[in-house]
Amino acid sequence: MNITERLHRIWATLPAGVKLVAVSKFHPAERLQEAYDAGQRIFGESRPQEMATKQAQLPTDIEWHMIGHLQTNKVKMIAPFVTMISSVDSERLIEEIEKQAAKYNRTIDILLEVHVAAEESKSGWAQKELEAYLATGRLAEMSHIRVRGVMTIASNTDDESIVRHDFQHIRDIFEKLKPLFGRDFDTLSIGMSDDYPIALEYGSTMVRIGTAIFGAREY
Ligand SMILES: *Cc1c(COP(=O)(O)O)cnc(C)c1O
């Protein structure tokens, strides 16, 4: 199957209103162009330099989503064009995004990445830390950031009950935070190539799929 056929298969499985982020990290621009020509408009990348290079080569109506861990000193590389940063995991990063977005007179959408998986290695806020930060009220002062929801990566395991537990946990956090933010807070970003059908059962509104579209990545 080629990229176009794979995309059509995936789109057919997504309920109305669920967005597909085509995770194109490590794949060359020509493969993204193929997905674009098939109709895909949202692309996810994990490295700022790689995203900036591809952004310069590809059509301007693409929405670029940063999905990987982002160092504060790299925000400026993507601030002029990035639509959403879905891996926001610290106060320092929030402050830098606000500063850079203001510089370009833009509003950048963010997702708060929450750590719910069993592995220590995964990034993201611990729920308690995030709630403590939100309680400071500082986020409300950030006029160039729009908080759209939460994101997580489920445990990397063949045990489906653990994955379900993670998705239920992030869903609960999403519902709990919703009243603090209002209407713009509409995005629950869960589900990757191997677990997105399960994530949809837990109310995912944004799936991030790489391998199932572009094939294996070459590192
Ligand atoms: C790489 C990556 C994905 C896509 O993973 P696949 O298993 O290739 O679908 C999704 N989300 C994040 C945060 C990633 O880093």
Structural description of this entry:
- Helices cover 41% and strands 17% of the residues.
- α4 links the parallel β3 and β4.
- It has an 8-stranded parallel beta sheet.
- The chain is built from 9 helices and 8 strands.
- The structure holds pyridoxal-5'-phosphate.
- Pyridoxal-5'-phosphate (PLP) binds at residues 23, 25, 46, 67-68, 153, 192-194, 208-212.
- Pyridoxal-5'-phosphate is lined by residues 23, 25, 46, 67-68, 153, 192-194, 208-212.
Task: Produce a short descriptive summary.
This protein is an alpha/beta fold and 219 residues long.
Supply the number of helical segments: 9
**Biggest beta-sheet profile:** 8 strands, parallel
> How do the helices and strands follow one another from N- to C-terminus?
HEHEHEHEHEHEHEHEH
Low-confidence parts = none
Terminal residue distance: 22 Å
Number of DSSP E strands: 8
Classify the secondary structure makeup into a structural class. alpha/beta
In the sheet with the most strands, the strands line up as: 7-6-5-4-3-2-1-8
